[in-house]
Amino acid sequence: MFDKIKSLVAKAKDSIAEASDSNVLADVKVRFLGRNGEYTGILRGLKDASPEDRPTLGKLINEGRAQIEEMFKEKEAQLKAREQKLKLAAERIDVTLPAKSELGSIHPLTLVKNQIVDIFIGLGFEVKEGPEIETDLFNFQLLNIPEDHPARDMQDTFYVGNNLLLRTHTSPMQAHTMKSERPPIRILVPGKVYRSDDDATHSPIFNQIEGLVIDKGVSLSHLKGTLEIFAKSLFGEETKVRFRPSYFPFTEPSVEVDVSCAMCGGKGCSLCKGTGWIEILGAGVVNPQVLVNCGIDPEVYSGFAFGFGVDRIAMIKYGIPNIRALYENDVRFLKQYK
Ligand code: PHE
Fold this sequence. Notes:
Elements: H1 2-18, H2 22-33, H3 38-44, H4 54-90, H5 108-122, E1 126-127, E2 133-135, H6 136-139, E3 159-161, E4 164-166, H7 172-180, E5 185-194, E6 205-215, H8 220-235, E7 241-248, E8 251-260, E9 277-286, H9 288-293, E10 302-309, H10 310-318, H11 331-334
Parallel strand pairs: 1-5
Antiparallel strand pairs: 2-4, 3-4, 5-6, 6-10, 7-8, 8-9, 9-10
Phenylalanine (PHE) is lined by residues 169, 171, 210, 248, 251, 282-284, 305-307.
């Protein structure tokens, strides 16, 4: 037993000396001093020793343990110091080197928005922005979408409590402007909007641009002329525009507007799914009820409104297949748009 204690202490000494890093050392420690460790096991042998030997043996075992613990402590400190030094060397930064900073690029959504805003400024529109948290009144009711009206299903809404919601479109700015300004009104409203929608072409947050014109004698043909100039400026002179009948509670008549496909020129391709046309916006003549709701006399004034998705136009213009690319902020993607 005396020999066994001695030889185990010697064995521990060797193993500790050999340990090359703190992980290995931790394993060695468990092997000798853990609950089922080799050295711990020696105590169990004490009961088999003769009663005369026991006190001496017990003392010896304790001394050996203290010795081993001391060796571990020393080695731990030694390894820790070395590892710290290696880590510092690996993460060394030479602050005297010239700074390497990359210049950012303009986000594709901003590029497209700026282009569109420029076109409408050229047509005499005033650019406005509005709140992203709206009341039910402005997002829906003033726009002729009463509570419980099935048209509310067209837009999956994020409600944030007590009649407040994240605006589902930029159209509430129509109501804000008509309530606070007198015609002639000619506004363009870019901004973020929110819907509970999420797939390859829909994101819960996206961007719209709203247009509103109110004056005496404004008709559907003014809408068509305006959108034709817009489409030709954005997609090229040869672009054609077509109106299809549609429905929005705040416009009457309402139209869905397509442009001839910029990629195939209208012959049909993968972008336009073979139809030659791409739907880009909703529009129409402002519903007289909306004018009344906002305090404008429909016997004197009329107007048109339109709203389109900036994301969709950016995806068409740059051939981006998944809307998420616009929100992930992966610099490898963003860098392409200068
Ligand atoms: N607000 C409508 C939408 O988000 C688009 C629209 C705007 C339609 C203005 C007509 C007039 O779907």
